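Margin note: ligand = fe (ii) ion.
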Amino acid sequence: MQSDLPVAKRFVSTADGRPTPEMLAFYEENGFLILEGFASDAACDALKARIAGLVDAFDPESVRSTFSTDDQAHARDLYFKESGDKIRFFFETGAFDAEGELVKPKHQALNKIGHALHDLDPEFDRFSRSEKLSNLAEALGLQDPGLVQSMVIMKQPFIGGEVGMHQDSTFLYTSPMTTTGFWFALEDADQSNGCLIGQAGGHKAGLLERFHYDGDDLIMEKTSDAKPQGPQEALEAPKGTLVVIHGLVPHSSASNTSARSREAYALHMFDRKADWAEDNWLKRASDMPVRGFA
Ligand code: FE2
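Resulting structure:
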């Protein structure tokens, strides 16, 4: 949906990724920081080509039962729950008919790919573990950054769905809260194709909800009576821009009603000096611990 929000201030990335005092002050005040030109066009294109290759190699037939069995909700649930240390493919709502047949070609039907691309795929590993990003993470106060989650978010032309207002610490909880999102625009993202929307300063209101295991079930638990707050701003991001998102800043994105896709790569880190909540949804096999930049 085309909206008309004020556009958030952008900075030009420094060459080595280390933020200026002005950038740090802006991040502290607003809970997000938009850095143009953080990734080169060539790096974005290489990652996009790799994404296309992953989708080429993916056989939707391999997950057909996941989306067409009688116990569809349960199967889908498991496919998601077990994706924390894998590369799995998630479709837009309505991508399959009642018989489990795709109603669109797979390249146009995917919503996202996640959640361990950065550990399992060499191209994503390289893109995620750059010295520049390490410098930035360190300057933001992540003393022992753990790269815990990665996602390609497709936001397909005409059908890319909206993402409701949420905080990332709801899903990746640590004590104290250290979760930080690093969202790379692989293509221009603006208000016509569903760019991020952030609530400036909203991170100061604390955590509103936690999504966590309760036995074998994942539940959403309200943790505060506060409401998402702060003026909404469009986090428009030309290709190659990195949007840093504080784990507590409420953010969303609108659906993509345009003819242009809005492919993005999102990487989440936490500080391994903090305690990772064992009831978080995201699970890693014991032989695949969360790694840092090394
Ligand atoms: Fe998010």
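Residues 62 and 127 are 28 Å apart (CA to CA).
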